[in-house]
Amino acid sequence: MFIKHHSSAGFVHTDIYTLERFENEKGNISLLLDPQNHEIWIRKMRLDSKAIPSSSATIQILKTLLDNLGKEIKNSKLPKSSYSQDRNELQSKIISPLNKQLKKTLNKELPVHIHGSIDEFTIILKGLPLSIHVIEKAL
Q: 55-64, pLDDT tens digit by residue?
């Protein structure tokens, strides 16, 4: 499988894992995004819908933020969803629940800042206090 690794030092690279190696190392990964299965993992714990209302939207928005790390993104450039149209929805259903789980498990939070009005705003991920892995392609 191909896994894109966003390190806290600011490096981005893609690693190739065998299924066996991935299963062995999965528990050591701080934050793992699996877009294909719509799953978010913090260490060995899969976040359910009680923890994250929409893992699919969270993954898509996080991928956009990671691809534009340190840059302000207009909400119109985010993946289309109700969360990208309403600042309060984005904050309350995506950013806050994810940071709550990260704080609880890793004692870290993503430095996401949102500025602007309810329907016209910008969002920025200012840096990474932890490594994030994204499954790009499963074999």
A: 999 999 999 9
- The edge-to-edge listing of strands for the beta sheet with 121-125 is 73-74, 121-125, 112-116
The answer for residues whose C-beta is within 8 angstroms of residue 45's C-beta and 6 or more apart is: 105
H or E segment at 56? helix 55-67
The continuous run of DSSP H or E covering 125 comes out as strand 121-125
Work out whether strand 121-125 and strand 132-137 pair parallel, antiparallel, or are unpaired. Answer: unpaired
Euclidean distance between CA atoms 102 and 106, whole angstroms: 5
* In the block, residue with structure tokens 């359910």: 48
73 DSSP 8-state letter: E
Closest among 134, 135, 137, 132 to 10, alpha carbons compared: 132
If DSSP codes are grouped into helix, strand and coil, which group holds residue 32?
Answer: strand
Tell whether pTM > 0.90: yes
Contacts of 58 (CB under 8 A, 6+ apart): 40, 52, 94, 98
